Automatic annotation (TrEMBL):
Pfam families: DAGK_cat (PF00781), YegS_C (PF19279)
Gene3D superfamilies with a match to the protein in the record: 2.60.200.40, Probable inorganic polyphosphate/atp-NAD kinase, domain 1
InterPro entries xref list: ATP-NAD_kinase_N, Diacylglycerol/lipid_kinase, Diacylglycerol_kinase_cat_dom, Lipid_Phosphate_FormReg, NAD/diacylglycerol_kinase_sf, YegS/DAGK_C
Name of the molecule in the record: Lipid kinase, YegS/Rv2252/BmrU family
Gene Ontology annotations for the cellular component aspect, listed alphabetically: plasma membrane
NCBIfam families: YegS/Rv2252/BmrU family lipid kinase
GO molecular function: ATP binding; kinase activity; metal ion binding
This protein's UniProt keywords: ATP-binding, Kinase, Lipid biosynthesis, Lipid metabolism, Magnesium, Metal-binding, Nucleotide-binding, Phospholipid biosynthesis, Phospholipid metabolism, Transferase
GO BP terms in the entry: phospholipid biosynthetic process
Chain ranges of the DAGKc domain: 1-130
Biological source species: Algoriella xinjiangensis
Required co-factors: Mg(2+)
Length: 295
């Protein structure tokens, strides 16, 4: 079947290279006898609308050009369809693209859209929505919440947001049910479910996670004092959190979080999301997304 490719480009992702990417795509694809088109997002959430409109045109591939937030919006609409997701990673963190070994170099990433293989990956589900990389309810959610309020969409922005979160964060109380069994009931510093093995910038909280193992890697860390928080940061950098005795790492199918708080701030694929329910359910949907990766 002849490919028809639609590129959805976030112009403000990462270093705001969206327009440059659009012109490079047009240069590369113009003489390739491939049916393609490009469209730029205009605001947060717009990629969902654009992807729904794109699906009506019967493409074979929709390419998300942006970071994990843009990928999340585009891929939401593709779960369970035959249309494959492509990625040109021009975000700041680019965790999912790193796991899929999609190059950050724009020219190489575009070349990988032309010369690709198809595969399937698992998809995470949080209440009614999907995630593709990871979600969290602890300090990471506080970091992302701070980051969403900063204008610096780069590593320095994350460092500033992390420092502020470390100074202000109060552990969150959850009753946690795993695979239909009561498992934990405590106050937590870190609560994280991951489909992918990278969270962005080469940082990993779940180095053993696999995108196609039909499982989520679940990590909880009980509340920590200041020294233990420093140990946690060192363990994140050393990719060995599971060695901390206040941490538990388990592979799971689903998890339910119950809280007495009226609102819970979560991070979902690196974007802050507020849940106004006292129950949050997270599960894995195996092989639910077609994806293309460079050959
Ligand atoms: N034109 C736009 N103006 C403002 N925000 C936009 C626009 N288009 C998309 N967005 C929003 O920008 C946010 C950030 O996008 P994205 O996650 O792709 O980049 P990033 O945060 O730089 O990368 P990463 O998530 O990999 O760190 C998303 O929430 C998306 O909805």
């Amino acid at each position: 079947m002849k490919n028809k490719i639609i590129f959805i480009i976030n112009p403000i992702a990462g270093k705001s290279q969206g327009k440059l990417v659009e012109s490079k795509i047009q240069q590369v694809f113009a003489d390739k006898n491939i049916d393609f088109s490009t469209v730029l997002t205009e605001n947060a959430g717009h990629a969902i609308t654009l992807a729904k409109q794109a699906i009506l045109l019967n493409p074979t591939i929709i390419v998300a050009c942006g970071g994990d937030g843009t990928i999340n919006e585009v891929a939401q609409t593709l779960v369970g369809t035959d249309i494959a997701l492509g990625i040109i990673p021009i975000g700041s963190g680019n965790g999912l693209a790193a796991n899929l070994k999609i190059p950050k170099n724009i020219d190489l990433a575009i070349a990988g859209i032309l010369n690709h293989s198809k595969t399937k990956i698992d998809v995470g589900k949080i209440n009614e929505n999907y995630f593709f990389s990871n979600m969290g309810l602890g300090i990471d959610a506080a970091v992302i919440d701070n980051y969403s309020q900063t204008k610096k969409r780069n590593f320095l922005g994350y460092v500033t947001a992390s420092t502020k979160a470390m100074l202000q964060f109060k552990p969150k109380k959850f009753k946690i049910e795993i695979d239909q069994n009561d498992a934990f009931d405590d106050a937590y510093y870190f609560v994280f479910c991951s489909n992918s093995n990278e969270a962005g910038y080469g940082i990993s909280f779940s180095p053993n996670a696999k995108l196609n193992d039909g499982k989520l890697d679940f990590l909880v860390v009980k509340k920590l004092n200041v020294l233990q928080q420093l140990q946690f940061s060192a363990c994140v950098l050393g990719k060995c959190i599971e060695k901390m005795n206040r941490a538990k790492v388990i592979q799971i199918n689903n998890v339910k979080f119950k809280t007495d708080e009226p609102k819970t701030v979560a991070q979902v694929d690196g974007e802050a999301v507020i849940f106004e329910k006292n129950s949050i359910e997270v599960s894995i949907v195996p092989n639910a997304l077609n994806i293309i990766v460079p050959n």
